[in-house]
Model the fold of this input.
Amino acid sequence: MLEIRDLKVWFDVREGFAKSRPLRAVDGVDLELRAGEALGIVGESGCGKSTLARAVLRLLPPTAGKILWLGRGIEALDAAAMRPLRRDLQIVFQDPLASLDPRMTVGEIVAEPLRVHEPGLDRTARGARVRAMLERVGLSADVIARYPHEFSGGQCQRIGIARAMVLQPKLLVCDEAVSALDVSIQAQIINLIADLKRDFGTGVLFVSHNLAVVRRLCDRVLVLYLGKPMETAPTAALFARPLHPYTRALLAAVPIPDPARQPARLAATLGGELPSPLDPPSGCVFRTRCPHAAAECAERAPDFRPPNSTALATQRVACHRLEEI
Amino acid sequence: MKESLLEIDHLSVRYPAPGGDIAAVNDFSLNLVAGECVGIVGESGAGKSQALLAAMGLLPRHARVAGSIRYGGAPFTRELRGRRVAMIFQDPMTSLTPHLRVGAQIAESLTHHLRLSGAAARARALELLRQVQVTDAERRLDQYPHELSGGMRQRVMIAIALACNPEVLIADEPTTALDVTVQAQILALLAGLKRERGMAVVIVTHDLGVVAGVADRVLVMYGGRLVESGAVADLLTTPRHPYSRALLRSMPRIDDPLDGPLHTIAGQPPSPARLPTGCAFHPRCERASDVCRSRFPALAAGRTDVACHHPVEDA
Done:
């Protein structure tokens, strides 16, 4: 359904009087998403995960590379040519309240995509679709006359999801959609997204820094670091046997509420800090924090490739030393 | 029995409001002993930060604080803040002064509290930065906060907090704004400081995984009240309060069996402006009965201390 080839999104950054330098937010990412599949895009801040998701929706202009949507290249389409495609490409943002227009009622917010993309629909039919969708996301239909500020964060996120899903899009992008929510609310929204994906067969790009959430919701995972893909694998494989040293470090750093295991996990965490994306390391971008880095890692960027072992053929990893470590 | 440092007794925090007082904290008590790490857990509005800010005398003037706060057996005074009890916050960028170099900000506390000279303060600042494992410490002294990463800034905050060798460090969501690998580094640093200096630590967090890594004891708050407290090993493995249990179950983990949908708690945490009667958790509780709606349960001692009319008992 969606295919991305060697996508690059660079920004010009000017510091003082210095000549502008490119910030390579996304630097050569390939991905594929089949209909009804959920792909998790994970990594720490500055890894390019949100930029990637926004570029896919053409909310940001790609610098280079191809974005094929249902077989058609959309990387160069202008706003007018993109408009008809937008009914199938929807997004839910992190901050639920900020992403809803405070002057519109909930009913108007959820009806807006229908007005734009299904102008033939009469008032009654539109109202029925809106009410049905609101109920589907767990809100009673009597919320339609109220305004976003009257709702809690979790309810606003349900409204945002209703707005995104009312057209039954083929692709739903969730950009840290559960990150701002309290634990008990987060669980409700995770289950809601899982149910909607299953019932509507929606493909999902799930951008998150929370690996435990991604493990629950996604079929496959793509791990990014400084704009580059480190590893991609089916979810079960990635969590059972992470192959890239960065994936391993990331998984080891996720806190688990088990007092018998967590203190030891903490003691063995990855050192160092994320390098500046304006001045990424040569060769493999992860080498400055990698416990296995060798001379060749500084010289040449590793290919993003399947491991030599056929047993691991579903995974792709960018690491020179994959077979040794 | 270890020496008790900070004793908070029957603390309550109210804010007068037109529609009736907002009860941010109700009857909160904590007895912190030397060298232990206590985690305080809860969702937004649970009162966890309010309780500690109130204990430190850091709430706005219109807050009505009642209860007793003692330190080392005597009433807590402002002079102890920064010297004996230091505090760090979630967002190191807003806690640091943007136009002062890092070295000057650490030295400020040293010259103010310990009356060190300029050169001695700078030398000590450098030593402190090294203790909190800031790389390239000498150069960092002359940098401004915006030139540092989030993790570095939190280390600088910890260095400032450690300047006067405090006996207690209060950390309010210290790693919430950080990436997981950096969070793990900061938590490992705090655990090490606690161990090496025998410093007591109170860590406020919404993440039970954070508590499991660093805390000895954990307090769970809901609707402004303490609902359960106990040793981490007990409370996180077999919680007795239905809320603690539900919170643990609704947290996605990287090591859970994925055998069915995530457990959820219906509804949402209550607003301190509109707390339910009786036990604030009763509208969301699967064990609630009539008594839960009318009367708040007292905290009763047991394997863990729990404030519940129908605690979960060991199977």
In short: The domain at 36-57+78-84+166-306 of chain B is CATH 3.40.50.300 (Rossmann fold). The two ends of chain B are 31 Å apart (CA to CA).
